[in-house]
Specification:
It contains seven helices and three strands; from the N terminus they run αααααααβββ. It is mainly alpha-helical. Helix 2 packs across helix 4, helix 4 packs antiparallel against helix 5 and helix 5 runs antiparallel to helix 6. The termini are far apart. The model has no long low-confidence stretch (mean pLDDT 83).
């Protein structure tokens, strides 16, 4: 009888050790990257703060594991940084593309607001998705970009690109080597800054 109880206790302990060991291994080997990417991508598109719940749950799950929790926060920071970089290169914004600058300005304002909402969210254990230094870094870079875009948009020298006809007329005004003229319409050639030659059909007042 006693041997049977001892054997039962041994089996139960073995089962407990297997379960506990499996849980530890599962936690240590869990691939959090997919969860973080999916959650952050959904949030950045929709702006719905509840999309971040899976990351918050991860931070609480790994509250006692500094290494994995820090890895999750660092991975989140890098992912968001890539989003800022993508947005920076998404538009051609200069003094000849006013509308593009306006759209980019709106998107940078939106992403900075989303970043603020993301950082203000805390897990039950008090952890944020990115640490304070990472938040300050991204927010500062975003604000610098916004300031530069605001200046461009406000500048009287920033304009939209000319349409095709306006551009053609400007080229015709300085075109050279006009030939094959008929009823004031000629074939002319425009040279750009790199001396590339472009054939144009231009209205020219050329004496016979």
């Amino acid at each position: 009888m006693k041997k049977g109880i001892i054997k039962l206790i041994f089996v139960l302990l073995l089962v407990v050790l297997v379960i506990v060991g499996k849980n530890i291994i599962d936690k240590k080997t869990f691939k959090y990257e997919e969860t973080v990417e999916k959650s952050l991508s959904s949030y950045m598109v929709s702006g719905n703060i509840s999309e971040l719940d899976p990351i918050i749950e991860l931070l609480d799950d790994y509250a006692n594991d500094d290494t994995i929790r820090n890895d999750i926060q660092s991975y989140s920071f890098n992912f968001l940084g890539n989003w800022y970089t993508y947005l920076d290169g998404k538009f051609k914004c200069d003094r000849y593309n006013l509308n593009s600058c306006k759209v980019q300005l709106d998107e940078f304002r939106a992403i900075n607001n989303k970043l603020q909402g993301l950082y203000s969210l805390k897990s039950e254990e008090g952890y944020s998705i990115i640490v304070t230094s990472a938040y300050n870094n991204l927010s500062s870079e975003g604000n610098k970009k916004i300031e530069g875009l605001e200046k461009l948009v406000a500048s009287p020298n920033t304009k939209n690109p000319d349409d095709y006809e306006t551009e053609r007329q400007e080229k015709c005004a300085v075109a050279v080597d006009c030939e094959s003229c008929r009823d004031g319409v000629c074939t002319c050639y425009y040279l750009d800054q790199d001396r590339n030659r472009e054939e144009l059909t231009c209205q020219k007042d050329i004496a016979n």
